Amino acid sequence: MDGKLFEGLRVLELTGPMGQQCGKLFADMGADVVKIEPPDGAASRKIGPYLDDIPHPERSLSFWHYNTSKRGVTLDIAKPQGQGLFRRLAEGADVLIEDTAPGTLDALGLGYTHLALLTPGLVMVAITPFGQTGPYRNLKTSDMVSLAMGGPLWSCGYDDHSIPPMRPYQDASYHVGSHYAFIGAMAALVLRQMTGQGQYVDVSVHEACHATTEGAMPIYYFNNMRVRRQTNRHASPRSSQPVVFPTADGKHEFTRVPAERRAWEQFVEWMEAEGLGEGLRNERFRDPEYRQEMGPQLTQLVSDLCARHGAEELFHEAQQREMVWAPVRSPDENVRDPHLQARGFFVEVEHPELGRSFQYAGAPYRFGETPWAISSRAPLLGEHNEAVYCGELGLSQEGLQALKAEGVV
Question: Which of 47, 124, 230, 351 is the most buried (most CB within 10 A)?
């Protein structure tokens, strides 16, 4: 098979930062994703950093990343003519992804109940902070609000609990929500193959975050215990020893004192070779519970070992000994990672208007029969207005220019 996975699938995307990752997943797998922006551009175009630190709607690196392989049109859906065009676009769509506030599209006559009359097979995915129902549905939010109220923030931070919880990474909640939205859309498409009927998929970022709080929520559900934040470790009801230490070359290494018997023997041999293994052959150390009790002493040995060697040297030696250690990689080190290079993870994407190409992160999966590829850089503002409105909907050039003059596109 030479075609892409979602070749022939039409997706409309009416999103900002909250839902654009969902559209990207479809687009990079071959779906024809048409991103709809206001005539003055999506707010996500104003999110930095920018190429060469020059703020401009066409130079947002965040927008570039989240909107690869999409086509782009402008449309003011608040205007009656814009609503008419939106309905026509929806008639030819398989999936509509939107992240407007609850009730927004319904108030414009563009909600699922309206569009399903035109396109019964439409799968409409609504990504909102708290979902379409419930007491929080109309609350204002942000990525941080979702992380805080959804639960992940509780688990992120330091051993010193006088320091407030820490944000993990930017837009983490939006990533989680978009991925669940993608899964929901795929499930609805599978059902549509069997029944011919589309459906409405209500995605709550709040609930998506709640579902991804590693062990925090199950531990509370089943044991009525609260986890504690721990520096560089999983939150847990039980405190554990530090696991990340500075290395001789000024970097850091993630480490772990082994619990498994074979790996423990390898650890002892390594410590002895370094002159750090005194007493580790004591029979009591064969008991994992005793090793837990001796955690501070063992942790000091690991810290001393890391201070003697570079991060990569420690990594390779530990791997040879079947121990799960790893260097803490910086972005530039990741770009040079020989494994990522060997698998062709990074891809070059042309930006013809700049006369340059740029390296982008690829996909963490490979399809045996259907190739994955970024087909194009993010669309310029209104780049595909003519192709979509004239070429597909049949508007004349004069009609398109009139709509532009009226601020509809």
Answer: 124
